[in-house]
Amino acid sequence: MSKWIVLCVCLLTQSLTLAQVVGIEFKEKGFLFSEAPTLSFLWPAKQAKATLIFIPGGEGRLGITPDRKNLGGFYGSTLKPLSDPTLSRGELNVVVFDSPIQLPGVEYPTSRQSSEHLLRIESVVRHFKDQFGLPVWIMGHSNGAVSITEFYKMLQKSKKEDLIEGAIYSSARMGSNFNDKTRLPILFLGHEREQCPKSLPSSAKMVFEQQQKTNPSKTEFIMIKGGEAQPQNPCSSGFHMFYGAGEEAYTAIEKFIFGPRS
User: Fold this and answer.
1) How many C-beta atoms lie closer than 10 Å to residue 78's C-beta?
2) Could you give the CA distance from residue 241 to residue 227 in angstroms, rounded to a whole number?
3) In which residue ranges of the chain is pLDDT below 50?
């Protein structure tokens, strides 16, 4: 009997360390709210000390399916290594949030300010905070920066700011900002050769400088320098997506969260 117990424990431990898609029930009710669960892709870390939840840019819907085993591109080169001790400290569980609904925006993605979207982010944050019992950081890239700034403002209104430990504001869409009552560690990431006119580093630098004046928590601005351009839309490829500079980006992220290695 004891051998079976050991086997079950081993299988459970193994399953918790494999990449997987996690479906999170959305219980909130509202006019025109979708009842679809929120699917998130998880790379768990064996020696995790925190969890990073990533909110994608674009229209927010990656189309992750329950049978998905891995994610490539930006996700595989910049996020996945944070959970892998052969490439980094391997101390972050990494979660990629996938919206079941499109989050459009012509001049500005106002859909990312919607109650449904922000409540879905909250449900995902709570799920993984409860599952792992570890501090949660949120990261928004491009349009995803709108999501995390609006999410934090929602937490401020409901006095739930302690739900998250800090934020990564990455290649941010111009117009996304934190207010002067923000009390949160924030890492600002941009690329010095950014080619997307909607995500200029100069705009992010202004948000950073304002936070330096009013936010008593740790803030830092890191300019990514490496990588290369690609012959696609500059707002979804190349320097904007840290193409060829994933290591530079994830090293900056883990250093900000955990501090320099001893």
Assistant:
1) 25
2) 9
3) 1-16
- Residues paired with residue 187 on neighbouring β-strands, in sequence order: 168, 220
Q: Which amino acid is at 194?
A: E
Model pLDDT for residues 127-150, shown as the tens digit of each residue? 999 999 999 999 999 999 999 999
Give every CB contact of residue 40 below 8 A, 6+ residues apart in sequence. 21, 22, 24, 53, 64, 95, 96, 97, 98, 124, 128
The CATH number of domain 20-258 is 3.40.50.720:
no
Cα–Cα distances (Å) from 93 to 138, 225, 255, in that order, read: 12, 26, 15
Could you tell me which of 101, 104, 123, 98 has the C-alpha nearest to residue 33?
A: 101
The span from the CA of 162 to the CA of 156, in Å, is: 9
Predicted structure pTM score: 0.92
